[in-house]
Write a structure and sequence with these properties.
Two copies of one chain form a homodimer. The first copy, chain A, is an alpha+beta fold and about 140 residues long. Helix content of chain A is about 35%, strand content about 25%. In chain A, the strands form two sheets. The first copy, chain A, has a three-stranded antiparallel beta sheet. Chain A has a three-stranded mixed beta sheet with strand order 5-4-7, with no helix packed on it. Chain A is globular. At the A-B interface, strand 6 and strand 7 of A face strand 6 and strand 7 of B. Strand 7 of chain A pairs antiparallel with strand 7 of chain B, so a sheet runs across the interface. Chain B binds a DNA duplex (25 and 25 nucleotides) through helix 2 and helix 4.
DNA sequence: CTGTGTGCAAACTCTTTGCATAAGT
DNA sequence: ACTTATGCAAAGAGTTTGCACACAG
């Protein structure tokens, strides 16, 4: 059977010029089926395996980068060890829970940034990232 | 001869409970002599060698982490490959030049952030990081 | 002297790459 | 058929660690 989600994934991939292979389809579905997510390569690799679609780590890396180039997902710079991918490409910001290494979305409307500085000569702003680092309240 | 800067470094280290060893003194001086800086382990390692104080990479890592724990410097999360250390611990934000991998300070006064969201239950805000990613203007 | 700090090399983690095989069009 | 993707294993970058030797107090 071919589900509606599979069709959407296939189109999404084709539009980005990517062949809808078994692996890319599976990864796209895992990524987009559950709404906005923040995931690492390792997590997605495990999810794929658990979902019965064994995919090599290299393919997960390749695929996530291709998706990133295609603008389907974004790379998050929150912690310097692992790379986090964000399935929400729209303008929004993040909480990062230190220790836990957990990323949470901040509703777009919440934050307002004022007095953005002028970029240096010849440069333009590509993106503004706000990361609010959280720690457990001591009590 | 013992310079004023060396004395300041020595006191700074002692205050943080770190023995003012040859290596730590040298690194502290390289780090703090030139005002606010953003550096990688590799850069500092090279500078130390060039300054005639050969220090092992491991020691640079150890030392920068000790300095970080002591609150003398901060870790910047801008790009997910290397770790950047910021010698400016005060509240301020950054430009990050994509491709170039260059970090620039944004004058403190410039940015105002409004409507900071409430942190989730039991959490408190440790720090707010704003990174403005820049790209070369196409013209 | 006694305890820390340092240097080296090996280990580790995350990520990328090269190349033969498999799959898509 | 022709082209692109995948998987594996090996290589690469950045970082950490264990242990013998050196240095600071």
């Amino acid at each position: 059977m071919t589900t509606a989600i599979e069709i959407r994934s296939e189109e999404r991939l084709r539009r980005s010029g990517l062949r809808p292979t078994r692996q890319r389809m599976a990864l796209a579905e895992l990524i987009f089926a559950k709404g906005d997510r923040h995931l690492t390569v390792e997590e997605l690799h495990e999810e794929a395996g658990a979902a019965g679609v064994p995919v090599s780590l290299a393919t997960v890396y390749n695929t996530l980068h291709q998706f990133t180039e295609a603008g389907m997902i974004r790379v998050l710079a929150v912690e310097s060890a692992k790379t986090y991918f964000d399935t929400n490409v729209s303008d929004h910001h993040h909480f990062f829970v230190e220790g836990h290494n957990e990323v949470l979305d901040i509703p777009v409307s919440s934050i307002t940034i004022g007095n953005l500085p002028e970029p240096p000569e010849g440069m333009e702003i590509a993106h503004v990232d706000v990361v609010i680092r959280l720690r457990r309240k001591r009590g």
